[in-house]
Amino acid sequence: xxxxxxxxxxxxxxxxxxxxxxxxxxxxxxxxxxxxxxxxxxxxxxxxxxxxxxxxxxxxxxxxxxxxxxxxxxxxxxxxxxxxxxxxxxxxxxxxxxxxxxxxxxxxxxxxxxxxxxxxxxxxxxxxxxxxxxxxxxxxxxxxxxxxxxxxxxxxxxxxxxxxxxxxxxxxxxxxxxxxxxxxxxxxxxxxxxxxxxxxxxxxxxxxxxxxxxxxxxxxxxxxxxxxxxxxxxxxxxxxxxxxxxxxxxxxxxxxxxxxxxxxxxxxxxxxxxxxxxxxx
Length: 281
Ligand code: GUN
What we know:
Layout (H helix, E strand, L loop, with lengths): L3 E2 L2 H21 L5 E7 L3 H17 L2 E7 L5 H13 L5 E4 L9 H7 L11 H9 L7 H12 L8 E5 L6 H10 L3 E5 L6 H5 L4 E4 L17 E4 L3 E2 L5 E2 L4 H4 L5 E2 L6 H18 L2
Parallel strand pairs: 1-11, 2-3, 2-4, 5-6, 5-7, 7-8, 8-11
Antiparallel strand pairs: 9-10
Helix pairs in contact: 1-10, 2-10, 6-7, 6-10
The structure holds guanine.
């Protein structure tokens, strides 16, 4: 069996068209959804990510503000910027790009964001809302993964989902979202004794470790759905995920490619969260 691709670019185009239409409707009521993105320092990957986020705002008709600060910015100065954006009625979403320089406590900065504007979904209020099934912002990458499963009409009820990775940004919220849809969920991580024994039982596998070839064909049950959150470079410098794509695609029923899979969905869900924040005002 050769797996069907779940095309994150195509799905993003569909979802962003819906976002654009809803942005137009809000604008007709005098509200323009606004996203503020703060970048501290000159991390090359972060610069690309924030540019793409600002471009997505432009493409969907949203207002955006990009603040770039030198790595020497103090924690107090950054907290003051977050506070100013919390008070700014033109801003419905605030995103502080991670990683931050080492002298800044990232969690303290995240907790300073008004939870009503936490479109990244990283605030403990957002994490708590997800955990208890209350309304809040879902972190964009796992939210995008859920949309990808929805796009293939996948019913998670009673299915075994294995999440590889336990980060606050992807692994843990991913597990909670899958659980909310009534999957049986296993979280695997660096101390898991026999990863292959776990993944071979899985109907759905989400690989979110940040390491090449974490998942190979021999570790996948025929017909499983595989979502690849990884963003790595191979020996030739080409972008690749955590999954051995060429091998696993011969076993899985559906698989997300890298690039063009989960990556574009992350930014799309950021647009959705920002729009919904504005719709709630
Ligand atoms: N760094 C890498 N991914 C992300 C993300 O989704 N949000 C933020 N704020 N920083 C990131």
